[in-house]
Design goal:
74% helix; mainly alpha
Length: 72
């Protein structure tokens, strides 16, 4: 799952979004909730992956692609 988290961060940074931007877009009250998610401190569910993909404007498969490749 670490590959998915790295991919999320890479895409977020490449789009010029901060953790605060992500937190706001995802409905978190503060950036700490999103930060914990990106660091892998809380469980990353498929629902959260879909929500993150929507905020980043990418297909959820993009976020999972490296994970699937390395998990095979």
């Amino acid at each position: 799952m670490e590959h998915v988290l790295l991919k999320i961060k890479q895409i977020r940074v490449s789009k010029g979004l901060t953790q605060q931007d992500m937190a706001n877009s995802m409905g978190y009250k503060s950036k700490s909730g999103y930060c914990q998610l990106e660091k892998g401190e809380v469980k990353l569910t498929l629902d959260k992956i879909e929500l993150i993909a929507n905020v980043l404007e990418v297909d959820p498969q993009i976020l999972l692609s490296d994970y699937k490749t390395n998990a095979s």
